[in-house]
Write a structure and sequence with these properties.
Strand content: 25-35%
Number of strands: 17
Radius of gyration: 21 Å
Distance between the termini: 29 Å
Strand order of the largest sheet: 1-2-12-3-13-16
Largest sheet: 6 strands, mixed
């Protein structure tokens, strides 16, 4: 089931540039259905399934495997870890968060200078990542070095939980939910020859998408993503990009891409015709792999279908199951339409 696949994927570590565990899981799961599987030099996973209709240029469905996280950059003499962000993370959410470090998943807790030791100036300053450390319970630098190394990947340690009226909370829902949708779709023989593409390094600049598009040479690409909702109570409605519970999001534009107009019109008309819940994105914000795919080769027609997400790039991303289902149905139907 889709939700079980999402849970399994979100449990895996996979920051940008270190997606191997996610890739291995996906490759094993899609192997029975794919006619061809490739791993690019940068780590992007390409899975091809022959369609009922053979095309000169195939369809490309893309979702990214990587999640935001951190990297160990120094170990202090008293055994604490200094670290840098990998991807866009709000420093203000970090204090007190549990994390796992390296291949062995060493447990750590992010901490900062105690509040009663702060000067008035320090108290008024926003929390910055350079002021934080990860505590792994080491007595000194030597003990810490026996457990972790410089350059180790760090991920949030966060359980996947279903709660409320059909909501799911987890780390890495951006974009493991999209990966799960592709993993479900590959199980059915598609209308067109299709490459199911699981990209790397989206969170640090969409580096995997360009190489993937140049390799598979698609005529059309559908990017399956999550997007910031900003729909909390007390919001400025002018800054609410989309709303959980109102279906899949089909943006015309974000900060790096303008969707192919004809393709966008077809996808939204299809959603209306099939009674699939969808909504526009009402802010120009964020960016996706569509930006790099669109400018690849001699140009690729792209459209993005997203799920609205609260608390994106945090240990507690929140999606609504009905939106994920609408996203799945819309991508499934869109992949069959006339291009």
């Amino acid at each position: 089931m889709l939700i079980d696949t999402i849970k399994a994927l979100c449990s895996l570590p996979g920051i940008s540039g270190d997606e191997s565990q996610v890739r291995e899981y996906i490759a094993e799961a899609v192997k029975p259905y794919a006619d061809e599987i490739r791993v690019q030099k940068n780590g992007t996973l390409l899975a091809f399934r022959q369609g009922h209709e053979h095309t000169y240029k195939p369809l490309m469905l893309a979702a990214h495997m990587d999640e935001v996280g951190f990297m160990v950059k120094n170990i202090t003499d008293d055994g604490f870890l200094k670290f840098s962000a990998v991807g866009g993370i709000d420093d203000r959410i970090l204090t007190g968060q549990r994390v796992k470090i390296g291949k062995n998943g060493v447990l750590g807790v992010i901490g900062k200078k105690a509040i009663h030791l702060l000067s008035e100036t320090e108290y008024k300053k926003p929390v910055k990542i350079e002021d934080l450390v990860i505590d792994i319970g080491a007595a000194d630098k030597e003990q810490a070095q026996a457990l972790v190394s410089l350059g180790d990947s760090v991920v949030f340690d966060s359980d996947t939980v279903l709660f409320g009226d059909g909501y799911i909370k987890a780390k890495a829902l951006d974009d493991r939910a999209g990966c799960a949708i592709l993993m479900e779709l590959i199980k059915e023989k598609p209308r067109y020859d299709t490459w199911f593409v699981f990209t790397v390094m989206e969170e640090i600049g969409c580096y995997g998408a360009s190489a993937a598009a140049n390799a598979v040479k698609p005529s059309v690409a559908i990017v399956v993503e999550t997007t910031t909702a900003a729909d909390f109570a007390g919001r400025d409605d002018g800054k609410c990009a989309c709303i959980l519970g109102k279906g899949a999001v089909v943006p015309v534009m974000d900060r790096s891409t303008i969707a192919d107009r004809a393709l966008h019109a077809k996808v939204t008309a299809l959603a209306n015709d099939k009674n699939i819940a969808w909504q526009p994105k009402t802010m120009i914000a964020g960016g996706t792999d569509a930006s790099q795919i669109q400018r690849s080769l001699d140009g690729v027609r792209v459209v993005t279908v997203s799920a609205p997400c609260r608390n994106i790039h945090s240990p507690s991303c929140v999606l609504k199951l009905s939106d994920i289902q609408a996203q799945y149905e819309l991508v499934a139907e869109a992949s069959k339409m006339d291009f």
